[in-house]
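Ticket #4471: structure export looks truncated?
Reporter: QA, pipeline team
Priority: medium

Steps to reproduce: submit the single chain below to the structure queue and open the exported record.
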Amino acid sequence: MSEAERDAVWLQLPARLTSLAVGVRLLPWVRDELASWATDTIAARRGTWVTGAPGASAEFPCTHDRQIKIAAHDDAVVARATDAAFRLRVTEKLRAFAFGDGGPIVLGLPKARAALPSTSTVAALGPDADAIDETRRGDRLFDFGIGRRASRFLIRTGDETLASALDHNAGRHWSEVMPAIGMEILTASPNRVVESAVARIEVFAPIPAPGVTPPPGAHTHFLPDFLKSGEEIPAALALPEFAAPVAIFYPATGRG
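Actual output as written to the record:
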């Protein structure tokens, strides 16, 4: 299909979904409306932004007890807190899907536009040139190899000892890497970066010890049992076949 034909289909989807009684509905927001809404979710402290896959995700809470600085650029919304940073690049192809009144809103892209370079083993990616904070763009970035098409779970570090250990384990599945250098990662507590084609959450908070509940605030999840599902998004928030998820917003009263 041509670009014009695809755009026409996007515009028809809300009516099609309603006629089929589908629980998810495409919101009729265009780029500027999406950018304004995303900015307001942060400024008004309306809930939590999440990106990543089940078992390998990051959360950026926007709650009234958190100090968050917001910057709206021409192509992106950026939020910074002491424990994390969040960036959402708003494009013409980005769409919002609602799950019930007051429920989660999933942002999606056509699948071809949402795909990221994917690996199923730990891989060194070089300096983090796309870091939200310019001072971190020289730090080393490592893909932890969760093998998803729409998101990546990454480790970023300026610690040469940890970087060397990760280099040594490049090419191995994460299930082999964790027993080998898991304690080194825990001790160094590097930044965790979870990203999709348009969303990125960088978490600076220390990694909690096994069995310890993370303190309130931004955090990541890396849960092997959940990764076994191979899902790109929780099943209850699955998008129509033509779209891939890139971020989820959970309203403060809609997470359940």
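Status: closed, not a bug. The export was complete when the record was re-opened. Leaving a note from the reviewer for reference: The chain has two domains: 3-115+233-251, 123-214.
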